[in-house]
Sequence to fold (291 residues):
Amino acid sequence: MFPAIDPVAFHLGPFSVRWYALAYITAFIIALPIARRLCALRPIVAGPRTVDDFLFYAVLGVLLGGRLGYVLFYRPLFYLSHPLAILETWKGGMSFHGGALGVILALAFYCYRRKLSFLGFSDRITVVIPIGLALGRCANFINGELWGRPAPAGWPGAMIFPAAGPMPRFPSELYEAATEGVLLLGGLLVAASFQAVRARPGLLSGLFLTGYACARAFCELFREPDANIGYLAGGVTMGQVLCLPMALAGAVLVVHALMRPPVTTLFMSPGAEVGFVPESAAGPESETGSE
Fold:
C-alpha cells in the first residue's frame, strides 16, 4: 500500500506549507552554491554575484513556464473555458517541458542584459537542474500523484495508490527521480569536471537536453498518461512527444559544440561584453574575473 503522507509539511498560522513547495525551495538552496562553483571553473563564465542575481530569473522561469506549459500542452481546452483556473496553482499542474522553456527564455534575457555568453552560462546552470527534478518527483510521490501504469504480478516495489484504484502500479515518480534526477545529475557533474568539456560552449547544455529527453521518454513507459489526454497515435504519450524536440535540440548543440574549436579564456570586465576567446585566437591562458 502507498504510505499515506500528508501533502502539507507544516502550518504557519493560517498558511499551509506543502512538501511540493519545500522541494522547490530546497532545490534552489542546494543548487545555488554548486552553480557558483561551476561558473568559477575555467574557462570562467561568471562571478558569484552574477549567479546569485540569476536566481530570481530562474524562479520566474520555472514557475511561469511550468504553469503555462501545463496549460498549453496538457489541458488547453479546459483552461480556455476556465481562464481564472490558471491562477489556481495550489491545485497542481506544472509541466517540466514548459518550465525548461521558461528557464531558457530567462537565461537568454539575463545573458543579454548582463552581456554574458549564453551557451557558456547555460552550460553551468543546466548541470544543477536535475536537483530540482529529483526533489520534485519525490514531492509528486509524497502527494500520491502522477502514479504509474498497472504493474505485472509480483513486480518488486509495485504500490496500490488509493486514488488510482485497487490495482498495484509502478511507483513511476521514484523511477523519474532516480533517472531524470540522480543519474542525470551524476553524469553531468562528471562531464563538467573535465575542462575539455567545459571548453566547448553548448556541450553540457546539449548533454542535459538529450539526457533528460531519453530518461523522461523511458520513464513514460511506466507512467500512467494524463487522464484527459491518454495515449496518442502509436501508443506514445504527450510526454514522449514533447521529449522529441528537446532531444533534437540537444543533439544539435552537442554536434555544434564538438565541431567548433575549444576555448581557453573568458574575458570579463564591468559593463563589457563577456565572451569566449577561441583557442586558436588565444594566447597564454589568462582571465580576469571582476564584476
